[in-house]
Amino acid sequence: MKYIDEFQNPQLAQRLLDDIKATVTRPWALMEVCGGQTHTIIRHGIDQLLPEGVELIHGPGCPVCVTPLEVIDKALEIASRPDVIFCSFGDMLRVPGTGRDLFQVRGEGGDVRVVYSPLDALRIAGENPDRQVVFFGIGFETTAPPNAMTVYQARKHGIRNFSLLVSHVRVPPAIEAIMHSPDCRVQGFLAAGHVCSVMGTQEYPELAERFKVPIVVTGFEPLDILEGVRRTLQQLERGEHAVDNAYPRAVLAEGNPAARAMLDDVFEVTDRSWRGIGVIPDSGWRLSSRYRDYDAEYRFDVGDITTREPAACRSGEVLQGLLKPHECEAFGTTCTPRTPLGATMVSSEGACAAYYLYRRLDLPARPAAAASTAGSTSASTSASTPDLEGSSVV
């Protein structure tokens, strides 16, 4: 399969690892800002294969995880209303709000439906003119364009019983907030390739220059991650801090002009709250004044809902890269996929879910044999060091 098998080749992975090992002369800390990349790293044991002292920090790259608690509670309030059909992607249904989740609302009689596209929700609105249909629009720059297009289509075709509950966030302001943190240890970033495929790379050079950090646009397969790490480390070792596109098969400098035009038409930039982190200025989108009638928060008057994060959940520290999931006292005990305290344990892109799924239940920061080469037979889901010829990159 093109661009899958080729980018999981263990021999090429070993060559990249050898090049990385030959490059590194001192410790470095890099952050990936994408939940999909986090899962690739943990699934294939990439962080354990890197040279001693090279650390991969998991950033706030999971769209479900960063959706704030108050927005979840607004969704629960709207979904509970008898005249509403509430539509969402499936990964939001088990994200805990205050005391319950969307699955429980459905169990209590709420009409909560899983859809696979926001256009599915628009179709449902057309089929049910006597009901209000709400789609839960969350995520980064990758999911915002189709949600914007759906609102545009609703307005164009006069479908008045459709609205969007918006919780879209933007990556560049999050990078800026991370770098301003007094606890920040990040020296370079692996930028999310799918975000840049939409938005391009124009927003990153200013950040790289201002904070003196290299930013390398990276894909999602094992070789993509290793190549992104290699390029970032090469810049750091040379004292450089530029934006580099290591994902040219999907990313152009200008991004996707049609998608960006749709975003500019339907949305406007606003401050956004990130779950476990707080408000980041200019880090999100809301519907512009032209489309305000399609804003579910406005339509259902739920703008004044406020909440407080549960004290036992340390997902905010995980999302900021200050804590590895298995370092949390609740991880794997009171917080599991069946009994999650926060979204990072529920989402398919959450760091806590990755550590639990791939059995990183109680590991030291660096296994003794972290730089092992091909020949071992341990699986990537075991608690032992992964290998290239086993299941770590194939």
UniProtKB/TrEMBL annotation:
The keyword Metal-binding applies. Residues 374-386 have a biased composition (Low complexity). It holds the Pfam family HypD. The keyword Transferase does not apply. Keywords: Iron, Metal-binding. Residues 374-394 are annotated as: Disordered. NCBIfam families: hypD. Belongs to the HypD family. This is Hydrogenase formation protein HypD. It comes from Streptomyces thermocarboxydovorans.
